[in-house]
Amino acid sequence: MANRRQIFNDQWLKRAQAQRGSASWASNVVATRDTTGGIYLCTLRIWFNQFPLTQGQKQQLRSRLESFRDDEHLGGVNELAWWAFMLREGVTGNPLPASSAPRPDFQLQPPADCFVEVSTLNVSDRDKKKFEREEAVALDHAETIRRVVGKLTAEKQRQLLYAANHKKPCVLALFDYTTWSGFGTVFFKTLGEFLLGRHLGFKTFPPELSAIVYLERKVLPDGRIALSRHRSAAYYNPLTLHPLQSGTFSSLIQFWSQLVSTEPRSTDHWIYL
What is the pTM of this model? Predict the structure, then answer.
């Protein structure tokens, strides 16, 4: 009975076996279950069990984590990864239970004193179709930025308004899982130039948005989950109605008005979660 309640239990593993050879994330995990895949699942089990919500409140999160669809699974993993990152940063905050009315995923306590909405940029449908046709996929930062703009102007309005109604800053924690993420393309600089450079792309976004935290997350060859410190960054919106306290996420590169930046407090490439 205890095993049945556990996430990624024996019943789930039996269903996952059927994914072997497919394009699902579970295929590689099952194939490496005795090594890196097992470490990956064990990490997620620990995070899920420690995640500070009741079992009933975590049911939707569990469904996403156990989904064999990459986009659903990654959405759940990134929510846990953000929580693990907060713990590592010493930031006090709690996840907000899912509700019928959209609201951000986390509320952080002072000195951060803000709400955080976690989101994922997945591989685009256009790139998926090219992969299916075995065609090359071009590196297109402009297309990725267009998708970021679309996500904030179309998908996240109600979460931003929830924070604004509470007179608190709202942060978008954006995990990049597009085709070229993790290839050392330093997209974070292109994003910074768009947001805070000459054209001040932050004008494109709702004024309720206080900051964007751009994150590249990777499962390392040894199965550990980490963030790239050299390719992740925080961008503070100079036009926001509710400014976020500067330096809130000090282990990341920080971008301010007119592209002034500060380096993270550590030179280590990876932030191990």
Answer: 0.90
